[in-house]
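Example 4.3 (complexes with small molecules)
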Amino acid sequence: MFCPKCGTLLSVRREQGKVVKRCPNCGYTEEVKSPSAIARVTRKRTEKKPGVVAVSHIEEGLPVTDEECPKCGNVGAYWWIEQTRSGDEPPTRFYRCVKCKHTWREYA
Ligand SMILES: [Zn+2]
Ligand SMILES: [Zn+2]
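Answer. The structure with zinc ion bound is encoded below.
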């Protein structure tokens, strides 16, 4: 960013559609190539959305009950309770078959 001739700090300015670095001391000018490319370097934010917790990870440490799987008939299912939708609804109990991983909810 310094003038190669006199060492003065160059000032960036826009002239006739071009961006040039100009020395305020000796008048040396240097064209800045594709200033838009510099702007494009700005990083895109790769922010992960706080997604729903993958159900496949839930079963670790969950209690098992002797509920019968409606899909394969296996007796034995993990269960947990989730508060669904609004708070004025009662929490729903979910089951997951330990055998076929089929998940269903208990309807009150
Ligand atoms: Zn200069
Ligand atoms: Zn099952």
